[in-house]
Amino acid sequence: MPKRRASPTKARTRKAQKILTKDSPPKASLEEPNTAAETTSFELKTPEYNGDSQGGLILRKYYPPELSDECAHEYINGDRQRPIEALKAALVETSNARHQILLGRSVVHWFRGDLRLSDNTALNLASTMAQTSESGVNATLIAMYLISPEDFEAHLTSPAKVDFILRSLKILQQDLDKLDIPLYIEVVERRRNIQNRVLQLASEWGANHVYANAEYEVDELRRDVNIIRKGVARGICFSVHHDLCVVKPGELSTKSTGKQFSVYTPWFRTWTEYVHTHPEVLEVSPPPAANPSRTREIHSTLFNSPIPSAPESKSLSSKEATDLASRFPAGEHAAHKRLKKFLSERIARYSDDRNTLSERGTSMLSVHFANGTLSARQAVAAARDANTTKKLNAGSMGIITWISEVAWRDFYKHVLCNWPHVCMNKPFKPAYAKIKWPTTPEAETLFEAWRTGRTGIPIIDAAMRELLTTSHMHNRARMIVASFLCKDLLVDWRRGERFFMEHLIDGDFASNNGGWGWSSGTGVDPQPWFRIFNPLRQSEKFDPEGVYIKQWVEELRGIEGKAIHAPFERLDIEEFKKLGYPKPCVNHETARKICTIMYKEALGK
Predict the structure, then answer these.
(1) What's the order of all strands across the beta sheet hosting 106-110?
(2) Of these residues, 475, 502, 540, 555, which one is catalytic?
């Protein structure tokens, strides 16, 4: 009896196993709320979740298992209400009721990811509202910041970022104090209690209006929807405003289909045209006006709120804290100082130097964007004003290129709003969730080598050690190590996404998720998934003299010439042994073949 031929999928699987046997094996995300109370206003059309197929990657303390494919496609097709649409609907449906709510004794601005006074949309509106009293006696403006240790845990916020937030809060409090505006800070242990606590505090302070800038992650959008509706029932107007992006999400669409852009280049072209025809989007708002002199008397208990210590799980050693404070000064004043220095000294060469790992040709402003101590508006407007033209796509190539890089932050937030399944542990392209990432002990060994900077690939180890030492990594290096993790080591890219969020001082969900999706080929990038970075070529191209490698990989500082990029292959065996440096944990060409098979199998190609 003739043997049956194996299916193409099974044949590819056996081929991959054969390669693995022949050669040495290549060694965040936010989900929807876990409580029914927080999701009751959202109609579910299909079962929303699959089983937890991610091997414990999802924080089940806060989130359900992986989103189902059916639900992801309902979001994509518009058959399920997106959280950003739910927010718009809540604002529209409660508009009349909210507009009828009279000004109270106070107006509250709720600081979240916007730790600055200048160019803060909601803060400016709150300040204006406080001064509109018909009686001639202005209301007092109260600023508020609520800290939830559970939010830090659920959002994978790194200790370095928590430290930066707390340092920025101190500066913000001092600046507000000069205007007789109190910054009330409170720790809310349970994240689910934040909704009610906001309304309780507003009621205690006689504030009928609370302002905040929108946050675009699923949890935060749904939280705000609930506060809007609960607020109206209690006679409190909760107003949420767009502030994070130069062009608000949903404003740009393709001319052919009227849908949101999923590819950056045409999106950026349209973004640029929009800014040119709507120059008001780059107008920066002034800081809030000072409070009446009686404010300190009326709200004496709200001034000088102590800045709490970081939760134990997010704390730093005194040396780490000192190093970070020196390397990344906090607050908006430091942000503007760094922006000014970059514009005057380095932006002209930005297009040439931004990918050179040893040059530090980047602005190093990502920490300020991620924590809201500088707005994208302020940055783009300042760069435009430093140019020889008011056009964003003309003049200095360095300025043009930098503006396009800042715009990526807008783009990824637009993606997050229109394709919210990326916030639920699902790839932008849901089909890529079918990739069978190895879960063997060897795979764990490889992930450990990657995260500790001991892979034996100098450019990878340099980048990872930079991250572990400074809580930051050069952008080009991020792309290299991300591609290496998922396409050389064959480790689920979501593990790398989570690791970055847990360690980066500039961790931002939308940008981090977008970058990992791009590098793994599962995201918005139009290039095929089979683009696989060769780490050796990346090393030789972007660190030609090995300066970056030698800065972070101490074992290799004595190596001269091209051997720095591949010491195991380019030094004789005895020289290499003396280095005390590990052998490469993977062969790139072998891994590339296996990766290709894995992706093809998952996609049915």
Answers:
(1) 183-187, 140-147, 106-110, 207-213, 237-241
(2) 475
Q: What is the pLDDT of residue 408?
A: 97
Alpha helices (H) in 43-120, listed in sequence order: 69-77, 83-93, 95-99
463 close to 556: Cβ distance less than 8 angstroms: no
pLDDT-derived band of residue 159, with 50, 70 and 90 as boundaries?
A: very high
Q: From CA 268, how far away is CA 223, in angstroms rounded?
A: 30
How confident is the model at residue 136, as a pLDDT? Answer: 61
127 known member of a binding site: no
Alpha carbons 141 and 210: distance in angstroms, whole number: 10
Domains of the chain listed by start with CATH number: 85-246 (3.40.50.620), 429-603 (1.10.579.10)
For residue 465, give Cα distances in angstroms to 62, 146, 162, 203, 477: 31, 33, 21, 49, 11
Q: Is the distance from CB of 461 to CB of 340 less than 8 angstroms?
A: no
Q: Which two tokens stand for residue 204?
A: 């205690």
The single residue listed with the structure tokens 């309780």 is 200
Neighbours of 293 (CB within 10 A): 8
In tens, the pLDDT along 80-89 reads 999 999 999 9
How many H-runs (helices) and E-runs (strands) does the chain carry? 27, 5
3-state helix, strand, coil in the chain (%, to 5): 55, 5, 40
Residue 342 in marked binding region: no
Q: Tell me, what's the pLDDT at 497?
A: 96
* Annotation marks residue 271 as catalytic: no
The one catalytic residue in 271, 516, 518, 529 is 516
For residues 191-197, average pLDDT: 95
